[in-house]
Structures are given as C-alpha cells and as structure tokens.
Amino acid sequence: MIERLRGQVIFRDHESITLDVNGVGYLIYCANPFAYDINDEKERHIYTYQHVREDAIRLYGFSTREERVLFSRLLQVSGIGPKGGLAILAEGNAALVVQAIEEENEAMLVKFPGIGKKTARQMILDLKGTLDVTLPHKSEGVNVQSVMPMQTGALQEAMEALRALGYGEKEIKKCEKALQHEELEADEYVRRSLRLMVER
C-alpha cells in the first residue's frame, strides 16, 4: 500500500488531483480537490488510501493521517463506499463527524448523501468508542485558498464537485441560490455549501 506521496499538484478537476512525484503523475481522488493550490511549485504531502476492486484500483488522498484513518473506518461500515466516505469528510471538519458518532446524532449523519437512518445507526454501532484518534479542526498541510480567480466559474465548479460527492440537484440548487451573490473561490464555495447542508 502507498502510505504517503510528496509532490506538486499539477492538475485538478471536480473530483481528483494529479500529483507529480519525480516525473510520475498519480491520480488521487479527494474530498475537495479545490483545496489544493496548482499554481505554485510547493510540494504537498498527501496521505493515501489504496482501494482495490475487481474493475479498478484507486488512490484516495487526505491532508492528515487522522483523516485517512477515519476514512478507512467508515469503509468498514456496511453501506458506505469510497464515494460516501469522501462526502462525509468533504467539509474539512472530521472532528464534527466523530462527535456526531459519539453523541449518536443520527440527524446530522443522515444529511450526508447516501446515508439513511439504517446506515447512520450502523455507523454509530460500529464506530462509537473506536475512533481514538485526535482529529484537527481543519485540514493541515493544505492551502485551503485556491488560486483560482474569483468568478462565477468557481461557483459552477464547486457545484460540480458536490455532484461528484453524490449530493442531489435539489440540495445543490439551494446552495447555489444561497451563495450566488458571494464572491468566493471554488474551495470555499464547496465548504460553505456543505456547511449549509449539514446545518439545515
């Protein structure tokens, strides 16, 4: 298993980044690719999880080992796959997810795409008391300010990222309407949208 990669982010789209490591480009799926700066030469440390299926081998990337641990634990819950795990971590505050599990807050957990009451209950049963990792309030080692210029295109790209995470059109349209007059960068649009959905 590839535990960690260090390199320069040379490309990103709404669901992944390409990390150049000594001339080799690694395709890495992330919860919020817009959190990674692509216009400087600074190297990034990305902790990875290698997911193997019959038809695909994919790398998933995280800014801390703790986030990766939580992702791997989430995958052990019946009904949660990699896409669902990324959606749960996308807002960038994994500590809130741990808190919801420990406090048996099903109402918060079911707000994530693909998580119904049965899966939320399973998360609590399987994970409560086992998440003995210290999770930071915000991601470390990531430039959370995208260098993309403030423009309406950033909002559209952020909405595409939400679609990639599995959120429905109704929820996305509400977020788009709420944020359409804001001048933010794509990363912050994603974070604000996820915050809006979790708080409702």
UniProtKB/TrEMBL annotation:
<protein>
    <recommendedName>
        <fullName>Holliday junction branch migration complex subunit RuvA</fullName>
    </recommendedName>
</protein>
<dbReference type="InterPro" id="IPR013849">
    <property type="entry name" value="DNA_helicase_Holl-junc_RuvA_I"/>
</dbReference>
<comment type="subunit">
    <text>Homotetramer. Forms an RuvA(8)-RuvB(12)-Holliday junction (HJ) complex. HJ DNA is sandwiched between 2 RuvA tetramers; dsDNA enters through RuvA and exits via RuvB. An RuvB hexamer assembles on each DNA strand where it exits the tetramer. Each RuvB hexamer is contacted by two RuvA subunits (via domain III) on 2 adjacent RuvB subunits; this complex drives branch migration. In the full resolvosome a probable DNA-RuvA(4)-RuvB(12)-RuvC(2) complex forms which resolves the HJ.</text>
</comment>
<dbReference type="Pfam" id="PF01330">
    <property type="entry name" value="RuvA_N"/>
</dbReference>
<dbReference type="InterPro" id="IPR010994">
    <property type="entry name" value="RuvA_2-like"/>
</dbReference>
<keyword id="KW-0233">DNA recombination</keyword>
<keyword id="KW-0238">DNA-binding</keyword>
<dbReference type="InterPro" id="IPR003583">
    <property type="entry name" value="Hlx-hairpin-Hlx_DNA-bd_motif"/>
</dbReference>
<keyword id="KW-0963">Cytoplasm</keyword>
<dbReference type="GO" id="GO:0009378">
    <property type="term" value="F:four-way junction helicase activity"/>
</dbReference>
<dbReference type="GO" id="GO:0016787">
    <property type="term" value="F:hydrolase activity"/>
</dbReference>
<dbReference type="InterPro" id="IPR011114">
    <property type="entry name" value="RuvA_C"/>
</dbReference>
<dbReference type="Pfam" id="PF14520">
    <property type="entry name" value="HHH_5"/>
</dbReference>
<dbReference type="GO" id="GO:0009379">
    <property type="term" value="C:Holliday junction helicase complex"/>
</dbReference>
<comment type="function">
    <text>The RuvA-RuvB-RuvC complex processes Holliday junction (HJ) DNA during genetic recombination and DNA repair, while the RuvA-RuvB complex plays an important role in the rescue of blocked DNA replication forks via replication fork reversal (RFR). RuvA specifically binds to HJ cruciform DNA, conferring on it an open structure. The RuvB hexamer acts as an ATP-dependent pump, pulling dsDNA into and through the RuvAB complex. HJ branch migration allows RuvC to scan DNA until it finds its consensus sequence, where it cleaves and resolves the cruciform DNA.</text>
</comment>
<feature type="domain" description="Helix-hairpin-helix DNA-binding motif class 1">
    <location>
        <begin position="72"/>
        <end position="91"/>
    </location>
</feature>
<dbReference type="GO" id="GO:0000400">
    <property type="term" value="F:four-way junction DNA binding"/>
</dbReference>
<dbReference type="GO" id="GO:0006281">
    <property type="term" value="P:DNA repair"/>
</dbReference>
<comment type="similarity">
    <text>Belongs to the RuvA family.</text>
</comment>
<keyword id="KW-0378">Hydrolase</keyword>
<dbReference type="InterPro" id="IPR036267">
    <property type="entry name" value="RuvA_C_sf"/>
</dbReference>
<keyword id="KW-0234">DNA repair</keyword>
<keyword id="KW-0227">DNA damage</keyword>
<dbReference type="GO" id="GO:0005524">
    <property type="term" value="F:ATP binding"/>
</dbReference>
<dbReference type="GO" id="GO:0048476">
    <property type="term" value="C:Holliday junction resolvase complex"/>
</dbReference>
<feature type="region of interest" description="Domain III">
    <location>
        <begin position="154"/>
        <end position="200"/>
    </location>
</feature>
<feature type="domain" description="Helix-hairpin-helix DNA-binding motif class 1">
    <location>
        <begin position="107"/>
        <end position="126"/>
    </location>
</feature>
<dbReference type="Pfam" id="PF07499">
    <property type="entry name" value="RuvA_C"/>
</dbReference>
<dbReference type="InterPro" id="IPR012340">
    <property type="entry name" value="NA-bd_OB-fold"/>
</dbReference>
<dbReference type="GO" id="GO:0005737">
    <property type="term" value="C:cytoplasm"/>
</dbReference>
<dbReference type="GO" id="GO:0006310">
    <property type="term" value="P:DNA recombination"/>
</dbReference>
<dbReference type="InterPro" id="IPR000085">
    <property type="entry name" value="RuvA"/>
</dbReference>
